[in-house]
Design brief:
Elements lengths: L8 E2 L2 E2 L4 E6 L4 E8 L3 E9 L1 H5 L6 H23 L8 E7 L3 H18 L3 E5 H7 L12 E6 L4 E8 L2 E7 L5 H11 L6 H9 L24 H13 L9 H28 L4 E5 L6 H13 L3 E3 L11 H12 L17 H6 L1
Parallel strand pairs: 3-6, 6-7, 8-11, 11-12
Antiparallel strand pairs: 1-2, 3-4, 4-5, 8-9, 9-10
The structure holds 5'-O-[(R)-(carboxyoxy)(hydroxy)phosphoryl]adenosine (KG4) and zinc ion.
5'-O-[(R)-(carboxyoxy)(hydroxy)phosphoryl]adenosine binds next to α5 and α6.
Length: about 350
């Protein structure tokens, strides 16, 4: 749409960095960030809504939209101020388009469109899951292409073959609950609070992962798909027979958390390594909120090393939702001239035009 990227080079000499404002509002985090040249983080602001949703044990879409509306202007202002960048000095505005809660996405899109129009900046639409993968490229030693990426969040468990920044092919996905959703639901039935991933991760470190023998769902299947709802039900059934009579701080709770976590981690690790082997790829990336899980990082790291593969796990702060990843992918889309008009719309499900064309 409006404007065009600034000239970066005079002859062969780089004269200025390309600065992109990223805006993220797909779920329960309102975030904005300024990133230079797709790699240097100039600012990152995340307003979490966890306290708002905690008492409901999950994200309430209506409340999420209201919270985004309440905080988004402050969050964007803060990101610009921390970066020492004015809106006019930016090269583009990148915004999460989907998948996510449509009411929430529309808040970010509305703000991004208004700013792009008022300041004559290119507008870039970003797929939230592809953006998560970008977090792995922000480390000291970024992965090389091609790579297999496991995106594990509250809403998705997807395996991708990533050929470059703009070409990510979906290899497998969950058929029911996402891994993060399973963590959150199990935490809820165990009385551990919300969101459950971090709490189970911490509790599991004190437990015995072999205490309860849970099956590893779909580990023997040919596909690279996942299924976690049966595992969640198995935990509920176990709790019915063995209630946590000594409470959620007991050894029994730690053992259950560790056994459940180990089952999920085993499946995620096995399928990711299998995807890499099938596609002859030696680079693996982890992404999404569950990528912060300490057991997953250790186990998949060890398996990858044993197979001569290299694991790229992003900094924990970049695993959960943020706008740095949005601005970083925005840079590559801008370079490729993928600029959108003001008709840019939100989508709730994980089907991008690229995926639709390649499945
Ligand atoms: O990517 P994200 O911030 O939001 C979505 O796009 O969904 O992921 C949030 C999910 C939640 O389900 C949360 O419980 C999970 O990531 N999570 C974890 C950990 N930290 C966050 N799951 C397991 N272990 C963790 N350390
Ligand atoms: Zn996410």
């Amino acid at each position: 749409m409006c404007g065009s990227p600034k000239r970066l080079y005079r002859g062969n000499v780089k004269i200025s960095a390309m600065r992109i404002l990223g805006i993220e509002s797909s779920c329960d985090e309102t975030a904005a960030a300024v990133v230079a040249d797709g790699r240097s983080i100039l600012s990152s602001v995340v307003a979490s809504q966890i306290p708002v949703h905690a008492r409901f044990g999950g994200v309430v879409p209506e409340l999420a939209s209201r919270e985004h509306l309440r905080s988004i202007i402050t969050v964007v202002d803060e990101a610009l101020e921390q970066a020492g960048a004015s809106l006019d000095a930016l090269d583009a505005i990148a915004v999460t388009q989907g998948p996510g809660l449509v009411g929430s996405l529309l808040i970010g899109l509305g703000v991004a469109k208004s700013l792009a129009l008022a300041h004559q900046k290119p507008l870039i639409g970003i797929n939230h899951l592809e953006a998560h993968i970008m977090a792995a490229f922000l480390s000291q030693k970024p992965p090389s292409f091609p790579l297999v990426a496991l995106v594990v969040s509250g809403g998705h468990t997807n395996l991708y073959l990533v050929r470059d920044y703009l070409s990510m092919e979906l290899l497998g996905q969950t058929r029911d609950d996402a891994a993060g959703e399973a963590f959150d639901k199990v935490a809820k039935v165990m009385g551990l609070g919300y969101p459950g991933g971090v709490v189970i991760d911490k509790l599991a470190s004190k437990g015995n992962p072999d205490a309860v023998a849970f099956t590893r769902p779909m580990i023997g299947s040919e596909t690279l798909d996942f299924s976690f709802s049966g595992l969640k039900t198995a935990v509920i059934n176990h709790l019915r027979e063995h209630p946590l009579s000594e409470g959620p701080d007991s050894q029994a709770a730690a053992d259950l958390a560790a056994s459940f976590q180990e089952a999920i981690v085993d499946v995620l690790t096995f399928k990711t390594i299998q995807a890499a082997e099938r596609h002859g790829v030696t680079e693996i990336a982890l992404a999404g909120g569950v990528a912060a899980n300490s057991r997953l990082r250790r186990k998949i790291g060890a398996e990858a090393r044993a197979k001569g593969m290299n694991l790229n796990a992003p900094d924990v702060s970049l695993c959960t939702d943020n706008a740095v990843m949005v601005a970083a992918l925005g840079y590559h889309r801008l370079q490729a001239g993928l600029i959108e008009g003001l008709e840019l719309d939100a989508y709730s499900r994980a089907v991008t035009p690229w995926m639709a064309a390649h499945q």
